[in-house]
Design brief:
By secondary structure, this protein is mostly helical. It has two domains: about 90 residues, no CATH class; about 160 residues, no CATH class. The chain has 13 helices and three strands, in the order H-H-H-H-H-H-H-H-H-H-E-E-E-H-H-H. Strands 1-2-3 form a three-stranded antiparallel sheet, with helices on one face. Strand 2 and strand 3 form a beta hairpin. Helix 8 packs across helix 11, helix 9 packs across helix 11 and helix 9 crosses helix 13.
């Protein structure tokens, strides 16, 4: 594990102290009825001049989609002490030569509420989350966290839909469909599904380069995806969030799945340069609907696909 930069360490320590102090203060305040009554009264009877002078609340960079478990309830069996214990045991397990995956999954399940509180309510940085929950930072756990949020197996869902749609995507892009030749059906399917994912940006009229960054970090805060060789369906790649590499991926399909899931997991909006591509994955492949407006290009592509079936 790389050494944490001094600035990140200070930020992590500040967030942890702030969270602990805030939790203690909120618990104590909730136990004093008169304090809660005074706070409620102040909110209802603010002077007009003071109310006008108050700045508007800051806008959270909320994702443009809804999920089933966006803010889960804290399990009745858990409190601050037990959450801290789970985190410590999880980190100790990760240090072993052969960590127990079932133990990691169970502790991640029990601490799911705490991660959502950190990310959504406390707006903790990705570096802070990595310090507290290092087990999250691999493709398997990011996809598992997506499933905790949406109750959808993202890998299976995307593979199933792309298996049905890769041919239509190639036809719409006017790209020749490769001959299966001597390849078995599984290998051929993997190549064509990978190619289908890479064709989506062109269909959405977006110029997205998936090349590896020249430096160890990127300037983009939102999740970004990079491959060593995007022409190879088994190409390795990396995903960056907030200028930090959060995980490595082992194929084109795993890369796109984990990249998409990262927006949900870290509660981030789609960046402008890839908004239509990500919307197409959300609406066209997964069928995930929300109250936001679907880009016209996405709707047109979905209609053309339907006509090809």
């Amino acid at each position: 594990m790389k050494a944490i930069k001094f600035g990140d360490a200070v930020e992590i320590w500040r967030v942890r102290i702030s969270i602990k102090a805030r939790n203690v203060r909120q618990r104590r305040d909730r136990q004093v009825p008169c304090v809660m009554a005074v706070r409620a009264k102040k909110k209802l009877h603010l002077p007009e001049q003071e109310n006008d002078a108050m700045p508007p609340p800051p806008k959270k960079n909320l994702p443009a989609f809804g999920v089933a478990n966006y803010m889960p309830l804290q399990p009745l069996t858990e409190d601050d002490i037990s959450i801290q214990r789970h985190r410590t045991m999880m980190i100790n397990e990760l240090r072993k030569n052969s960590p127990n995956p079932r133990f990691i999954e169970e502790t991640m399940r029990l601490t799911f509420y705490d991660r959502r509180r950190l990310i959504v309510t406390e707006t903790a940085t990705v570096a802070s989350v990595a310090e507290l929950y290092p087990a999250l930072f691999n493709p398997y756990q990011i996809l598992f966290e997506f499933q905790r949020l949406t109750e959808i197996d993202l890998t299976e869902s995307l593979r199933g839909r792309m298996r049905e749609q890769w041919r239509a995507l190639h036809l719409l892009c006017q790209v020749d469909i490769a001959d299966q030749s001597d390849m078995d059906s599984d290998e051929y399917g993997e190549i064509m599904m990978s190619s289908g994912f890479l064709l989506i940006p062109a269909l959405m009229r977006e110029q997205i380069t998936f090349d590896m960054p020249l430096q160890e970090s990127t300037s983009e805060a939102a999740p970004s995806l990079h491959f060593r060789d995007a022409s190879d369906p088994s190409s390795e790649g990396v995903i960056f969030v907030e200028k930090m590499m959060i995980c490595q991926v082992s194929s084109i399909i795993e890369g796109f799945s984990t990249w998409f899931a990262s927006f949900y997991v870290f509660d981030m909006s789609y960046p402008k340069y890839a908004k239509k591509t990500l919307c197409f994955i959300q609406r066209g492949l997964l069928g995930l609907k929300d109250k936001s407006k679907t880009p016209l290009t996405v709707l047109e592509t979905m209609r053309k696909e339907a006509n090809l079936k």
